[in-house]
Every structure is written in structure tokens, then in C-alpha cells.
Design a protein that fits this description.
mainly alpha
């Protein structure tokens, strides 16, 4: 009987004890993020299916630029997460005046960085594409160039979106973030129907729809942040009031996080360049798997985006042991639910891959890689990506940055060339190298968490 009780406890999704956060509060925080992730995955898959209507060259070209966009956008997102750590800890301390100052200074520091990135990309777009794409086929290069010329103007609007989303999550208003995210994706999708299917604008239509949806939702979310009825908000947005101590505090957490994400995406670009040497079929298969991946990690991603708020508010309130307790509990829940989701992905793998309507050769490669991805995600994704976000919530961003850089450049890229190119495994070798990276990340982050040094870090 005691064994049965222990098994029930092992697989229980409820907290053994409650503190700052209750089971209901965690559910209310995470569930809208989960719905957001599911809707995002479905809409993005539908988006890629629409683009595949234009052809494999369009899928490959846009996939290249998406990887480059991720480099910039993930850097901006990481800066916003750094700011949300500061805001969360002020909320946990109940210092709302400082929280409002932090929100305004987040906007005044992150959006200008995005504008600079936009201007640099615009000025050097052709050399950047030549370095990024290498010796790809001419039609792939043309598709990438058209899409990139529009995508780069979306960066300031995504900076607004990420900043507002991070602040709203810090206030536990994940429902509004969900609605705004789904609205942006749905608008993007609706415009693609019009521009690609009706007006036959091809890649140009894909770029215009993405830029328009980002601009509309980004501006609307900043307006929402100016609502003074919110716990923390932007006061007098057009009155420039820079608090350099606050900006330094935000950037001290955000910049290491941003560098980590930026270098991670730079590594992805390097791998994308290696992928290009395997041909258009490999590029198209790679694009399909990248679109299916969010289904696999939807559970972990939901908690990953929420754990920063949970740990941040616990640390701000001086409850380090509660931060550790919630992290352990959420990690266990991630593993239980991720097992179920990935088994479903494995069972329906052929059907998911066939949705994109590409050639049987592309489908065969994509299917084998997606099997590998799902199996690895069951064992290593939560500790590779959810656990470091708990450390970031405590302000331990320098350690996560160093580990991510070492494993990306020392293992993922190195082993991708060894397995993919030298041993002849092709695209499969690149994805196997990623699994090796996950194993190393998991070992480092679990060790860091158990040693407990992150509990002593002071952010505010």
C-alpha cells in the first residue's frame, strides 16, 4: 500500500504545500500561456503550409530569414525577460513605484536597441544575406531577400510586444498576453490568405502580413501598458525620464540573457549554413521540423515562460526556499505532461509531416528527424530550458549565459560538423548534435540548482 501511495505522490500534479503561490494561482498563470503556445504552434504550422503553396524555395528562403529574425528577436525577448525579473522582484517586495519606473525604463532601453538593429540590418542587408546563405540556389536567395527586406522593419514593434508581454506576465496577467499573441498570429494568418492566395503576392505577401500584424499588436500593447489602473504601468510615456541606475539594474540581468540568446541564435545560423550544403530538400525538411517542434515542447515552454515570474516574486519577497520548492514541483509536472505530449507526437508523426504537402523525399527526412527530436525532448528538454529560466528568475543570468555558450559552440556546432559532414549523416547529424548539447546543458543546470548558489544573488 505504501508503494502505491509513493507512486501517486510521484505523479501528483499538486503542490505538497502552498506558499506565495497556490495550485490555483500557478494554474491561472500557466494555463493561458499553454493555450497561447498551442494556438501559436497551430497558426505557425498553418502559416508554413500557406507559404509552401508558393514552393520549396520559398519555404527554404523564409526559413533562413526566420533563423536570422530569431537572432534579433530572441535578444530583444531576453532583454525583456531581464526587465521582468526586476519588475517581478519589485512586485514581490510590494514596491510598486519602483516597479513603474522599471517598466518605463525597459521601454526606453529595449525599443531603441531594436531600432538600431533595424537600421544596421537595412544598411548591410545584401552582405548579411551573402554570408548567411552561402552558395544556395538562386530562387532560394531571391525569396530570402524579399522576405528580409520587410522582416527587419518589424524589430521595433516586436520590442514593444516583448516588453509589454514580459511586464504583463510579471503582473500575472497571462490571459491578456495570450489574447494579444493569438490576435497577432491570427491577423498574420488572415493577411496571408488575402495576400498569398487571393492577390498571389507570394513571399512578398508573407512579409507584408508579418510586418503589419507585428506593428498593430505591438503598438496596442504599449498603449495597454499606459493604463494607470494596472499594478505597474508606464507613466507619461512621451516624457523622457531616464533612471540610469534602474537601466543598469535591468541590463545587468537582461544583457547576459540577451547575449546568451543572441549567441545561441548565431549558432543556429551557423548550423543553418551547414544545412544549406545538404541541398534544398534538406532545407525544406529542416523547416518542417522547426515548425513541428513547438508541439513537442508546448508544455515545457508554458512553464518556462511562467517560472521567471514565480521565482522572481519569491526572491523579491525573500522566500528563497519557496522558489526552490516551486521549481522542483514545476519541473516534475513538466516531465509528466511532456511525456504524454511527445508520445502523441511520435504516434502521429507521419500525419503531422504530411500536412505541409511537400515531396515524399522531404517528408521522409523530416519524419525521421522529428522522431529523434521527440525522444530527446522527453528526457532532456525540461532541464535544458525550463530549469535555467528558474535560475534567470533569481538573477543568475551570467552562469546560464556561460553554459549556453560553451555547449552551443563547444558541442552542438562541433558535433554537427563531425556527425553531419564528416561522418556523412547529413541533416540528421545536426539534430543528433543538438541532443548531445541538451544532455550537457541538463547536467550543468541541475548541478547549479542543487548547489543553491543562485539563492544568494541580489537583483534589487
Amino acid at each position: 500500500m505504501s508503494i502505491v501511495i509513493k507512486i501517486k505522490e510521484l505523479f501528483s500534479l499538486r503542490l505538497k504545500q502552498e506558499g506565495i503561490f497556490t495550485d490555483k494561482m500557478i494554474f491561472d498563470l500557466v494555463f493561458p500561456v499553454f493555450i497561447q503556445q498551442v494556438m501559436s504552434a497551430v497558426i505557425k504550422i498553418t502559416d508554413t503550409i500557406m507559404v509552401s503553396y508558393v514552393g520549396e524555395a520559398a519555404v527554404a528562403g523564409i526559413s533562413f530569414i526566420t533563423t536570422l529574425d530569431n537572432l534579433v528577436n530572441n535578444f530583444l525577448f531576453a532583454l525583456a525577460i531581464g526587465g521582468s525579473v526586476v519588475v517581478s522582484q519589485y512586485i514581490g517586495r510590494n514596491d510598486l513605484e519602483k516597479g513603474c519606473d522599471a517598466v518605463k525604463n525597459m521601454l526606453y532601453s529595449i525599443v531603441p536597441i531594436a531600432i538600431v538593429a533595424c537600421l544596421v540590418m537595412f544598411t548591410f542587408q545584401i552582405p548579411i544575406l551573402q554570408v548567411l546563405l552561402g552558395a544556395v540556389e538562386k530562387n532560394v536567395f531571391q525569396s530570402a531577400q524579399i522576405y528580409f527586406s520587410l522582416a527587419l522593419f518589424s524589430y521595433p514593434f516586436y520590442a514593444m510586444f516583448y516588453t509589454a508581454s514580459a511586464v504583463l506576465r510579471a503582473m500575472r496577467d497571462t490571459r491578456l498576453v495570450m489574447l494579444c499573441t493569438v490576435s497577432m498570429l491570427a491577423l498574420n494568418l488572415a493577411l496571408k490568405v488575402l495576400l498569398i492566395y487571393v492577390l498571389k503576392l507570394g513571399v512578398l505577401g508573407a512579409g507584408v502580413s508579418m510586418l503589419t500584424s507585428a506593428a498593430v499588436v505591438g503598438i496596442v500593447m504599449v498603449i495597454m501598458l499606459c493604463n494607470t489602473s494596472r499594478k505597474v504601468h508606464v507613466k507619461n510615456i512621451f516624457k523622457v525620464e531616464l533612471d540610469f541606475k534602474m537601466i543598469k539594474r535591468i541590463l545587468s540581468v537582461g544583457v547576459p540573457n540577451g547575449i546568451e540568446n543572441g549567441l545561441f541564435q548565431f549558432g543556429q545560423l551557423t548550423l543553418q549554413r551547414l544545412t544549406a550544403t545538404f541541398g534544398t530538400v534538406a532545407l525544406a525538411a529542416n523547416a518542417i521540423v522547426k515548425e513541428l517542434n513547438p508541439i513537442s515542447f508546448v508544455i515545457t515552454k508554458s512553464f518556462q515562460n511562467s517560472i521567471v515570474t514565480i521565482v522572481g516574486q519569491c526572491m523579491g519577497a525573500g522566500e528563497q526556499e519557496e522558489a526552490a520548492m516551486y521549481t522542483k514541483h514545476i519541473l516534475k509536472v513538466c516531465y509528466i505532461l511532456s511525456l504524454f505530449v511527445n508520445l502523441v507526437c511520435i504516434i502521429f508523426n507521419p500525419q503531422l509531416v504530411s500536412l505541409f504537402g511537400l515531396s515524399s523525399e522531404v517528408n521522409e527526412i523530416a519524419s525521421s528527424i522529428f522522431y529523434v527530436y521527440c525522444i530527446g525532448a522527453i528526457f532532456f528538454y525540461p532541464t535544458s530550458y525550463m530549469l535555467p529560466n528558474a535560475l534567470r528568475g533569481a538573477g543568475d543570468t551570467k552562469y546560464t549565459m556561460v553554459v549556453s555558450m560553451l555547449t552551443m559552440f563547444g558541442l552542438r556546432i562541433g558535433m554537427a560538423y563531425v556527425l553531419g559532414q564528416w561522418l556523412g549523416l547529413g541533416l540528421l547529424g545536426i539534430w543528433l548534435a543538438m541532443q548531445i548539447d541538451w544532455i550537457a546543458r541538463s547536467a550543468f543546470f541541475v548541478g547549479r540548482f542543487l548547489r543553491g548558489k543562485w539563492k544568494t544573488i541580489k537583483v534589487i
